[in-house]
Design a protein that fits this description.
The longest helix is centred in the C-terminal third of the chain and has 20 residues. α1 packs across α5 and α2 packs parallel to α3. By secondary structure, this protein is α/β, with parallel strands linked by helices. It has one domain: Cobalamin-binding domain (Rossmann fold, 3-Layer(aba) Sandwich). The protein has five helices and five strands. It has a five-stranded parallel β-sheet with strand order 2-1-3-4-5, sandwiched between helices. It is globular, with a radius of gyration of 14 Å.
Amino acid sequence: MEHKRILMAKTGLDGHWRGPTIVARALRDAGYEVIMIGMATSDEIVRACIDEDVDLVGLNIGGHIKVALRAIEAIKLERPDLPIFAGGTITPASARQLESLGIEVYPPGSQLADIVVAAGRLINSDSFSQAGED
């Protein structure tokens, strides 16, 4: 069975790695192949989405909503059906903004089990929608 691939990237150039590392480990332990590119620009994130042929993108926002929005816009231009979820320090207003774009948000304190379940749901809903288009 082929492992589903999840790209994890940080949109902020801060040194806070604990959250994304723990989430990446939980996803890997759940059977996903996790590609962790760390701190990256929008262009680097899009290139990795294409090069790695990922099924889902996880962005660590770290309070940098403008940078994250640029990354999301760039991803949607190249791979419009690619699901994205976001975590890290996200203000309530920024969370609402992301959610209005269809991005699921997991701020600090979110349960790892919830994130893993969401990854499966997001990946499977994407593959179901593609299968229905044939």
